[in-house]
Design brief:
This protein has about 270 residues and is an alpha/beta fold. The chain has helices spanning about 20-25, 40-45, 55-70, 80-85, 105-115, 130-135, 150-165, 200-210, 215-225, 235-245; strands spanning about 50-55, 75, 90-95, 120-125, 140-145, 170-175, 180, 185-190, 190-195, 215, 255, 260-265.
Length: about 270
């Protein structure tokens, strides 16, 4: 095909279908006007492992081809169950909220509760409420069908700029046997390396930088997740629990009921 733009459409819903069903699976078109991949930039410096969660085969194929053309390493799955199995293997998740097996919002919420992988929610539902629900479920961005591939790439690049590790003011923090190096973003305990995720590091650094201060849940959401409006939920508790386990003692992070957390000691 020599046309620059290809449009894929799902078959229109039968007239016998209920109106709600038609709304749940709206007609879809993906503008696949894909510009040449960049010769420099993030895609060339380091390919992203992108998990494409899309039940519509032609749309998934178009996304995978476009992402590969830009130097990334996409892998596509068609169900929410498979997305939950593979979430830890991706640098970014592109999640269609209209899934055949599970509620897309619940899949989004489950991914966010268990890991901090950047996630873009995709849906044909364009109301303000739908966008708010997607963002509150943990999506880093929400994009509405139909959308152009250039817009998608711009949103991916913007998200990865935000989540890219930033230099922290104090290079090394030593709290007893616990050592945090913000230059290398490494944590060690009694000289042994502790493997932590990006958000776990940011959370531990926040607590260690202010060892005598109780850090509120709202402050944690603002400074670690860059989210000042979502209700602090299980995301924080999940990361705190994981850190306690990795540090080998629950006393490293003290919960101040109804307030927040502070650094403790073993």
């Amino acid at each position: 095909m020599d046309r620059k733009t290809m449009r894929f459409s799902e078959p229109r819903a039968s007239q016998h279908h209920h109106a709600d069903a038609a709304h749940a699976q709206p007609s879809y078109y993906f503008d696949q006007e894909i510009p040449p991949g960049p010769t420099t930039g993030p895609a060339q410096r380091g390919a992203l492992r992108v998990l494409v969660v899309e039940s519509e085969a032609r749309a998934a194929e178009a996304l995978v081809q476009g992402l590969r053309r830009h130097g990334h390493r996409p892998e596509s799955v068609t169900t929410g169950a498979k997305a939950l199995q593979m979430k830890h293997s991706a640098d970014l998740v592109l999640l269609d909220l209209d899934l055949p097996d599970l509620d897309g919002i619940e899949v989004c919420r489950s991914i966010r509760a268990s890991c901090d992988t950047p996630l873009i929610a995709v849906s044909a539902r364009d109301s303000e409420l739908d966008r708010v629900l997607g963002l509150q479920a943990g999506a880093d961005d929400y994009i509405v069908k139909p959308y152009g591939f250039r817009e998608l790439m711009a949103r991916i690049e913007a998200i990865m700029r935000r989540v890219r590790p930033q230099p922290l003011p104090e290079q090394v923090i030593q709290r007893g046997p616990l050592r945090i190096d913000s230059g290398t973003r490494q944590v060690s305990l009694n000289g042994e390396h502790i493997d932590v995720t990006r958000k776990e590091f940011d959370l531990l650094h926040l607590l260690c930088a202010q060892p005598e201060t109780v850090i509120s849940r709202r402050q944690v959401m603002t400074q670690v997740w860059d989210d000042s409006w979502s209700r602090p939920g299980r995301t924080i508790d999940t990361h705190v629990s994981s850190l306690r386990s990795k540090l080998g003692a629950s006393t490293w992070i003290i919960t101040i009921r109804g307030v927040g957390f502070r650094l403790g000691h073993p």
